Amino acid sequence: MSEPLKIIPVVPIPSHLVGQIEAKLAYVDEALRGAEITPDGSEIVLTLAADLDSGQLARIENKVQRVVEEMAKGAIQPKVEVLVDHSDRPVFYDQDPMDELLARGEVSEEAKGIYLLGPLVTRLVQFFESRFLLLADEFGAEPYRFPTLISAKMLDRVNYFSAFPHSLTFATHLREDLDIINRFAEETHYHPGGLNSPPEAFSKIEALLSPAVCYHLYFSLADHPLPDGKLVATAVGNCFRYESTNLNSLERMWNFTMREVIFVGPKEFVLENRQKSRRFMEKIFEEIGLVYHVETANDPFFVGEFRKQTAFQTAFQLKYEIRASMPFKNSTLAVGSYNYHQDFFGRHLNITLPDGGPIHTGCTAFGLERMVYAFLAQFGFDPANWPPVVREWMDE
Ligand code: AMP
Ligand code: ZN
User: Fold this and answer.
1) Which mutation among 258, 296, 361 tests ligand 1's pocket best, with the greatest number of atoms within 8 A of CB?
2) Distance in angstroms (rounded) separating the CA atoms of residues 148 and 268
3) Residue 182 CA to ligand 2 centre (angstroms)
4) What gap in Å lies between CA 218 and CA 210, rounded to an integer?
5) What distances in angstroms separate CA 241 from CA 165, 185, 316, 323, 388, one per listed residue?
6) What are phi and psi of 66, to 5 degrees?
7) Which atom of ligand 1 has the smallest separation from the CA of 247?
């Protein structure tokens, strides 16, 4: 039996906000299974759990309206600037590679949003890693290894909880209590919907699963002057973003990996290196023949902070996204970003330049699984269609 649908009228949603509002509607209510904005932006089609009473329906509708109001009301269409455009290069495939990847056992889904990758995908990840490491070498970036867990105290210092509460993933453990641990060992099992243990058995949250890579570097530099006044570092790490019903394929994973090159220092140093990163990667992507463009973008702030923060990011061009073409659905997907945080981390974490002023930071970040997914979406599975640089690397 199909789930019930309900169509509700909303204040007109401008087309540039459709994707971002739909993404946030996933977090409105556990009984809301899907929400699609109609093409003219005047209505939303809600897919709901069965057997809701009228009170529950009214509460869900009210929450949906609040999201739309807060995100769309008075929103000004940002001027999206395209910095480079290589979207006219040839593509060799028009299917969703996810189907073939699953059929070949190259990707398997362990649980929602949790994927493991087989040998072909792993080798392609390694190929792209080799290119990103060329970028890191260009700057003489120092290598780092960062933990998968991240400090709750430090994330709070940089206002992460108010900006991105929806996608957090928490790490907990059983409380140090013999009775609690024994009861857990004897009684706990998995049932559909999760473990059957009571919430009181778990500790308070001191750590989370890390949502990004560069934060760890800034945290390690907190409350000190930066000895040399500048630093370039690189690291690859596991990242976690709970994207709810949007967790669908290698496009949106709960647990994915990111390679970053991170710049810390005076404003001009960070901005120049961000620019240099873009130039360098343009050559790398040209060699691969990737079909993409780079444009101004914003981070996925939650509803309350969305309008203010995205307007700020756009006005100051703080984020550029590398958007790769996805031919099978005639759209694009962000495979990486060039970010400038101004002195945000310097101020919040009290990291200073030798002259006492706050440091500026920026990073170049690539999602490894998405990079491979976009590559396969454009070039397919027949190595004869792959660019020589990829073929040769895979043969070695
Ligand atoms: P961001 O810090 O949001 O710019 O993310 C950097 C890169 O990480 C993006 O350009 C994506 O390639 C990748 N990424 C972000 N979120 C996800 C996700 N949920 N699943 C897979 N890759 C992601
Ligand atoms: Zn970063």
Assistant:
1) 258
2) 31
3) 41
4) 13
5) 10, 29, 25, 19, 34
6) -65, -40
7) 19
Q: Is the beta carbon of 337 within 6 A of some atom in ligand 1?
A: yes
* Separation of alpha carbons 207 and 155, rounded Å: 9
pLDDT digits (tens, 9 = 90+) for 86-122: 999 999 999 999 999 999 999 999 999 999 999 999 9
Distance 142 CA to ligand 1 centre (A): 23
Q: Which of 345, 351, 357, 343 is nearest to 224 (CA)?
A: 351
Q: Does the beta carbon of 369 sit less than 6 angstroms from any atom of ligand 1?
A: yes
- Answer whether 358 contacts ligand 1 (Cβ < 6 A): no
Q: What is the pLDDT of residues 195-245, one digit of tens each?
A: 999 999 999 999 999 999 999 999 999 999 999 999 999 999 999 999 998
Identity of the amino acid at 55: G
What does the alpha-carbon distance between residue 17 and residue 376 come to, in Å, rounded to a whole number? 28
Dist. CA 155 → ligand 2 center (Å): 14
